[in-house]
Amino acid sequence: MITDRAAEFRAALPGGGVLLGLDLGTKTIGTALCDAGWRYASPAKTLPRSKFTADKAALAALAAERDVRGIVIGLPLNMDGSEGPRSQSSRAYARNLSALGLPVLLWDERWSTAGAERGLIAQDMSRARRAERIDAAAAAVILQGAIDALAGAVI
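RE: above sequence
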């Protein structure tokens, strides 16, 4: 199941469980994980982007290791809310990733990188360290937004 509606995604996961958040970049995939009670999201690994079969294997291993129940993928919408080529690419990635058998939620990521960057600057992190961690931090921002909405599940 692939959806962009929090309530539908929540209905597919009545028992909650750990979620995997993804920020899909052209060179890397930022990952984040949340607790089973959907209270907080934390940055995890930044994976190098490769051919889809290698990406899928790395994500499947991470999902199995952490007993992930669902996946949240950042959907890069334009500022006016419309979808462009990057959104279509994320939707295609979600369709391919659905082969893992986990429900997938596509979540608006318009301000995720900017929010992550502000958080890393607030931690007084150097530019070099920020560059290493920005994708995973953005994935955590995306995932936190989704689990906040899932707590209400009216969207």
